[in-house]
Amino acid sequence: xxxxxGSLSALETPGPANTANQQSESPVFFVHLDxxxxxxxxxxxxxxxxxxxxxxxxxxxxxxxxSQPASSGEDGSERDAKVxxxxxxxxxxxxxDFNRDIFFANKFEFSQEVGWLPINVPCPFDFLMGDPYVxxxxxxxxxxxxxxLRWQIDDLDGPWFLRGNWELDTSGAVxxxxxxxxxxxxxxxxxxxxxxxxxxxxxxxxxxxxxxLGNIDAKGPIGVRYAQGQDFTFTLNMGSGVRYNFSPRYAVxxxxxxxxxxxxxxxxxxxxxxxxxNVYGPVIAVDMQLRRHRHTE
Length: 297
Prior knowledge:
Layout: E1 2-7, H1 8-11, H2 16-24, E2 29-34, E3 52-55, E4 62-65, E5 107-115, E6 119-120, H3 126-129, E7 141-152, E8 164-179, E9 184-196, E10 203-216, E11 232-245, E12 250-262, E13 277-289
Antiparallel strand pairs: 1-2, 3-4, 5-7, 5-13, 6-13, 7-8, 8-9, 9-10, 10-11, 11-12, 12-13
């Protein structure tokens, strides 16, 4: 490709008349582009920005400069002008939401939870069973140690204040009872958790509920008042808290959990009153992704 830049004034025979015309008239330039050796795919429209083209007296070569002053005007006066190049650029791209690599469909996690539940309260669902809404004199403290398999069943979705996803949880629990007539409780529970995930927040709130079956060393049948009426029981757990994500694989969480244990009045058929246990307190957990893979949009 050959690019020739020249001035018509440089091709004319120099003389007094021509000299006067060069001082009063703006130079006219021509461009000759030889494209015979170029591929058609390389020929694209180009936007030429005019600067000042200074040609030497011999007219052998002209340079294009966007920073030199250009002279124009009907009165022949000179003024400084800087040609600003027009840069066609894209707007600032939005940074991707890293939470989409943490909360996505078919992600499996293992969670190890530990809690301290010393606060005794009446059961909020006593009215459904026809029982009085009262707090019994026998007090309990439970220390649940819960191992949970978490399965996130969908991707992030929803309006900004409810944006998040759902997960299905199944758990096995060993519960120590440092305060109360019974000493231990074993249970299997399962339920669901809702993760509330604001954009680009590492701290994400959650709410969960779980229900299941369990076995306790009941002391009601041996005459302990307000103790549990039989070994077989049902359990209900509800809680909320905040999860902090260090990375797509590791996270910790902390919150409050309420735990209910009772036999749904089954022991009354045998003459033992069903009082139940209703306690709540803090719980902490460590979450770890089971498979090393990331969400693909």
